[in-house]
Queue: 3 jobs
Job 1
Amino acid sequence: MSKTEARLAELGITLPVPTAPVANYVPFVRSGNTVHISGQLSNDGSGRFKGTVGVDVSPEEATEAARVCGINLLAQMKAAAGGDLDNVVRVVKLGAFVQAGPDFYAIPQVVNGCSDLMVEVLGDAGRHARSAVGIYKIPLGFAVEIDAVIEVA
């Protein structure tokens, strides 16, 4: 078991099978040692992380939704890194989108759900630059979507 897989087990996290694209794109693109991972939705299979944050999704639920995006990103990272998360050298950047209600501004705090997970799992290699943006709609009605740029060995 790799070091990162052991850390996931320690945290009680089981990575899902990476999701297939829902439109005309690929899950990730590798160019040299840089991998761009397409946006991952707050989809854990339960449907509970759908809606507008600050309207029908609480900030706490949205933070958990961002963590789910992170888990889905880790599943894609593993696939992009040849099946071994220890080949992830660095999370370079996260781009986060939160379906935010008109009076909801705590978008950075929501996205911490994913950012904190990256550091929990990958240590210093999980520290990253990021954008956190509130938007009108996210595909399929999910509350949060996050994409990533990573460096692999």
Job 2
Amino acid sequence: MSDRFFIRLLYGTLPLLVWAFHFFAVYLLVAAQCSPALITPQAPRHAMLAMLSVLALGACATLLWRARATLRDGAKDGAKNDANTPRLLDWAQAGGAVLAMLGVIWTSVPVLMIDGCG
């Protein structure tokens, strides 16, 4: 158990968890703002949705930067030591971060185009 599998698995799937949280939070926020009790002429508030999307993109970009550094360091040391070569979870984190960034953008564009609750 010294390889800390579940910690590495969490790092590999963390970008996708950020995307899932963003998806859930954005649509929950829009539904709450467009409920009959809270509906206002400014609903849904685009600034809150944009801020949530920027935070999610920042988290995914940070995770992608970290995965890129892991892959780069593993590629440099890979010729010397086979134990440091990039593993499947390192590639999964990098690919998941790219996919999560695209997913956050794909989720954000239609929500930011909403003109009001209807």
Job 3
Amino acid sequence: MPIDPRVVVTGYGPDGKAVVVRDTLVPPITARALLGQEMYLMWGTPDGGATVGPKAPGPITLPFFAGIGGTRLLLVRFPPASALTGPPSPNDQAEIDAEVQERLPGLIDVFDPGDTSGMHTTDTLDYGICVEGELWLELDSGAEVRLTPGACVVQQGTPHAWHNRSEIPALMAFVGVGARRSA
């Protein structure tokens, strides 16, 4: 049975005691350019660093990638490759790109225009955990690693792509930390 992404957030009540301030299912964000993927934007913190306590800010989930010191928590459900219908018509590309930019600002910026391999590079330190199904991590060197539930990936800003070669959806949980790219 697939997982329904839900976020439970704690905070402080008027008496200073810990309380649950949010407990809700998170709806997926989809776009035609994502070819069946479901993005669940769970939580995020401001660029420059997180704060905790009674006056901690609420979630910041957009832009898609955090700036230096910011964080993003998301789940991504990848459909099986067999369920994909192929790339969109080039005539629709501007409209499709605009849809992604509206729903998930910044996401499309990490992909090379016209490249359909899914290879991309981000200025984030990403911690990824395979939660359901199986997924393949591909690097630009050609190296590939099969991820199954419980596999943890530390993605250090390298060019990479994700592929679901199985017949069932795969779910990954990601924590992205905005980072400075070293020379």
